[in-house]
Amino acid sequence: MKLKIFSLFAGLLFSLTALAQNERVGVNTRTPTEDMDVKGSLRIQTLPKTGEGINTDAAGNYDATKSNLYAPDRVLVADDHGVVGMMNAVWPLFFYMPSIVIPTDTSDPAYDGTSTFEIDLYQKYFDQFTPSFPASSAQNPGATSTLPVLARTELDYFVTYYDNTVFNNVQVDDNGHLRYSLINPASPDVTEKTFMNVVFRRK
User: Integer distance in angstroms from the first to the last C-alpha of the chain?
Assistant: First the structure.
């Protein structure tokens, strides 16, 4: 029995050693491409919960006392090849832009004087997520954080709906600038149709 156990251990050790290439370790593959490359499923039987003590201290070193409490703020994601990476847990992959008024009056500053209106969608989002106008914003008195704001270049911009009996020539550029014209500029009154749905997606 002891001989069989030793043979099994030796065989496993030999297999792992044989699969290591250029300091990379492969499981079920002889050509690992990352530091650890598993060809197959992965199982982790014990995962810490938020607030539990862990053996890794704040500096990333071992701590047997588990004085550092687990406080996750990242999500593991993978690409098409199964390479695992990290994503900020604060942000979903996409979110709706905060509500704004879509101007239809040619006296509005968004009108360019010819036939086109232009709105900086990103700036509107930035202004609402970093409120600097106490008269038109509020938060709970015990708030201990602020809303996170992504950079302009970290987002893709989508107009997922507009009424094509009200608007035409609707375009949004890579910097989040929305441009559009009115089907009937002589009737710019706001109705239930003068809105657009805008979605931001993290790149």
Answer: 56
Which tokens hold the place of 132?
Answer: 């600097």
| CA pseudo-torsion sign 198, 199, 202, 203 | negative
At 142, list the tokens.
Answer: 């015990």
At position 157, the amino acid (one-letter code) is Y
**How many C-alpha atoms does 139 have within 13 Å on its Cβ side?**
13
- Report the largest interatomic distance among the alpha carbons of the chain, rounded to a whole angstrom: 93
Per-residue pLDDT at 169 exceeds 60: yes
Residue 35 banded pLDDT, cuts 50, 70, 90: confident
CB 164 within 8 A of CB 103: no
pLDDT tens digits, 171-200: 999 999 999 999 888 776 777 778 899 999
* Strand pairing class (94-96; 196-202): antiparallel
Tens of pLDDT, residues 124-166: 999 888 876 667 788 888 877 778 788 999 999 999 999 998 9
Which long-range contacts does 179-186 make (Cβ < 8 Å, 24+ apart)? 179/116, 179/117, 179/118, 180/116, 180/117, 181/115, 181/116, 181/117, 182/104, 182/117, 185/106, 185/115
- What is the rounded distance in angstroms from the CA atom of residue 50 to the CA atom of residue 69? 7
3-state DSSP call for residue 180? strand
